[in-house]
User: What shape does this take?
Amino acid sequence: MASLVIYLLIFLGVTLALYQFYAIYDYQNFGDDERRDDEDKAPLRRLLASARDYSRTGKADAFEQSLQQVFGDGLDRRLAEAAFCGDPAAIRPEPLLRRQAQIHFDGSIRIKPLPGWTIRPPSVDVRGFLLIVISANCLLALFLGGLSIYTLGYQMQLPALAWANQAWILMVLIYLLMGITHLVARFDLYMHDLYEIGQLNHRLADPE
Assistant: This one.
């Protein structure tokens, strides 16, 4: 009975690992846009629309009102104009909204990851590399799931691989990989936000 439960958990873990990979990839490419379609995110749509109108007409009232509604007093007006004024906007509002409390702006953008510690935003986007790590974790979870089926009929003979004959060890490794993937995905979102925000330094240095 215990073995059956373990194999059911392995099957569930492999299925969740596949879904996890899909969910991460989907969020990386479409997550912010999909969330913005919700009624609760209407202020973000109004902000982008008013920023485009401000760019065309020079009338700032609607833009300032939308900016206040979304960011309060926490986002410098110059930074907001660099980010949103233009068609299309330089970046989406969500990265700025997520990292607003960590942004230090004094002519150029700096990031405060911890109190008393200020750094430059990353100049290299590590998303491609981290997606490879996430993909490798998913493939490894699939391999371990397949290995659990293989060892039902055959035993690994090499002493260094004797652990693979224990289904519970394979189960633990699969769920451990899922936890690592979750942490990597969170780190990816954080670093990609900082990278996008840091790119505004180029526009601030050369508005045109």
Q: What stands out?
A: The mean pLDDT is 86.
